[in-house]
Design a protein that fits this description.
Layout: E1 3-8, H1 21-31, E2 36-40, H2 48-51, E3 61-64, E4 67-70, H3 72-82, H4 91-121, H5 128-150, H6 162-171, H7 184-195, H8 197-210
Parallel strand pairs: 1-2
Antiparallel strand pairs: 1-3, 3-4
Helix pairs in contact: 1-3, 1-6, 1-8, 4-5, 4-6, 6-7
């Protein structure tokens, strides 16, 4: 059965890999599964056809036969469970990889998204100069903890896994802020993720859409 995902017709980031369909594309590339992409406009995302797939009117969605999924964590987890390459065979290592997936989305990403929101939507507020350092410090707190845990290892728990895929995807949002460079081992960790052939293919596919070229997958 053909896998179909949805993506922005024009991504707000201009194809820099920050839109969440990149995470799904990357997972599919890692496990060697072909897929098709259905591009949706911001208007179409709020129409009944798309809301039937994603009740919150966002992207990406995942369709395969009678199965329709939304939320990147759920989609990547499904891909990792169904196809070899993203979860270890050992039961305990597998559980730890899944734990890192949840940690990326539930513990590390929230303060990073708060920082992005603060800079994008609140910079004209009178209290912005006081708020920004507080938000940045919350991000640094999480990065300090993650950096200590990663240490000198290449990946979070042995071999590359879906946990690393999600964590690198989350940390990529910090590249433009400069904060990531304060943690050399995390910056190197992200660079290793970006250097993976599967990530490069996923990134190129999303960039092609925003450059007006046909998406590949």
């Amino acid at each position: 059965m053909t896998i179909t995902i949805t993506a922005f017709e024009r991504s707000p980031d201009g194809g820099k890999g920050l839109a969440r369909d990149t995470r799904v594309r990357w997972a599919l590339e890692e496990v060697g599964q072909p897929y098709e992409v259905r591009l949706v406009s911001f208007l179409a995302m709020k129409e009944p056809a798309h809301l039937a797939l994603h009740p919150f009117g966002q992207i990406p969605t995942y369709e395969e036969g009678d199965l329709a999924l939304f939320e990147t964590g759920s989609i990547v987890f499904h891909i990792a469970e169904r196809h070899a390459g993203l979860l270890p065979h050992d039961a305990n290592a597998r559980a730890r990889a899944i734990t890192w997936m949840f940690s990326a989305l539930n513990t590390v990403e929230p303060p990073i998204l708060e920082l992005a929101t603060t800079r994008l939507l609140e910079s004209n507020k009178s209290w912005y100069p006081e708020r920004l350092p507080l938000v940045e410090d919350r991000v640094r707190c999480r990065l300090n903890q993650l950096s200590a845990r990663l240490g000198n290892a290449d990946w979070l728990d042995g071999a590359f896994s879906a946990g690393d895929l999600m964590m690198v995807s989350v940390l990529l949002r910090l590249k433009s802020s400069g904060i990531l460079n304060e943690f050399p081992n995390l910056a190197a960790y992200v660079a290793r993720g970006e250097a993976r052939a599967a990530y490069k293919r996923a990134f190129a596919a999303q960039l092609a859409v925003n450059a007006g070229r046909p998406p590949t997958g």
